[in-house]
Amino acid sequence: MTLNGGIATPFPSAAAPDRTTRTFKHQGFSITTRKLPILKAAPIEAMTASLGIAPPEMIFGDNLVRVAHEASGWAIEFNALDALDMVDKTGKAMLEVRHAAEWQRTREKVHEGIKEVVKPFDWSYTTAYRGTSTGSVEFKDDPTAELPLQALRAPDPILFFDDVMLYEDELADNGATMLSVKIRVMPARMLVLSRFFMRLDDVLFRIRDTRVFIDFGTGVVLREHQARELEYEQVRIKVAGRGDAEALATMRDPNQLVELLPVVERVMETLNVLG
C-alpha cells in the first residue's frame, strides 16, 4: 500500500524511478526495496486513524523491504505501518520519565493541520515486529535452530544490498528511537536484519533485532528475534574507560551497543519454501 500519493505501484515506472524502488531476482526469489521521503500531512492523518496512536516524528510510510519466493508464494515484508501496529497502545508499557507529559503535549502539535487525540501508549515506539509473513508456508518455533554465523562471515560477493529506514523519533530531545532494515544477498544465501534501537537518556537502552536467513540451495528460512536492553547507567559504566568522545560515540551507535546489552528474550523459527 502506498500512502504518500506519489507512487501508485511498488515497481519502477516513469513515476517511480529506480532510485526509489529496486528489484532484484535470484535463485527463485524476488527482492524489492523502496525508499521515499517522509510522509506528508494527509497520509500521516490516515496512518494515525488506522493505528489509533500518533506516529513518530519521521515516518517513512511508503518504504519497504520485501522478499518473495515465486514458486511457493511465500513472502515476508517489513513496513512501518505493520511495525507501529505492534506498539503497545494500552499505556501499560509506557516508560515513565520526567519529560513524558511534555512529549505527550508535543504530539498534539508536531503534525500541523492534523486533528488527533493522543491516547496513552508506549511513546518509545518499541516494537517486537518480526516482519509480515504471508503465504501457505508458516514459521514454526524451533528453539534448537541456530543461524549459520560461520557461513555469514565468509567473504562472499554481495550481489545486492540496501538499507531502508522505516521510522525515527528524537523522543522530545530525550534520546532517539528508530527502526531500519538492511538486506544483503550473496550467491548462496541472503540475510535481512530489522533493527529497532532506542536510547532514552538517563533511563534505558533497547535493541530488538530480527534476522531472516535464507539458504537458496535447501529452501530453509530461519528467523531469529532477539531482545536486548540495559539501564542507561549500567551502559555508561561499561564505556567509562573509553574516554569521553569514544564513550559518547558508543552510546549513540547500536552496532557497538549490541555487544554490551544482554539478551533478555530470544525466539527462533524456521520454515522451508521447498516443502
Give an overview of the whole structure.
The chain has 275 residues and is an alpha+beta fold. The chain has 7 helices and 13 strands. It has helices spanning 41-51, 80-84, 100-107, 149-153, 232-239, 244-250, 254-257, and strands at residues 21-26, 29-34, 58-59, 64-69, 75-79, 132-134, 140-141, 160-169, 175-185, 189-200, 204-215, 220-231, 263-272. It has an 8-stranded antiparallel β-sheet. Strands 1-2-4-5-6 form a 5-stranded antiparallel β-sheet. The two termini are 29 Å apart. The model is unreliable at 5-17 and 109-119 (pLDDT under 50).
Describe how the helices and strands are arranged:
Layout: E1 21-26, E2 29-34, H1 41-51, E3 58-59, E4 64-69, E5 75-79, H2 80-84, H3 100-107, E6 132-134, E7 140-141, H4 149-153, E8 160-169, E9 175-185, E10 189-200, E11 204-215, E12 220-231, H5 232-239, H6 244-250, H7 254-257, E13 263-272
Antiparallel strand pairs: 1-2, 2-4, 3-8, 4-5, 5-6, 7-13, 8-9, 9-10, 10-11, 11-12, 12-13
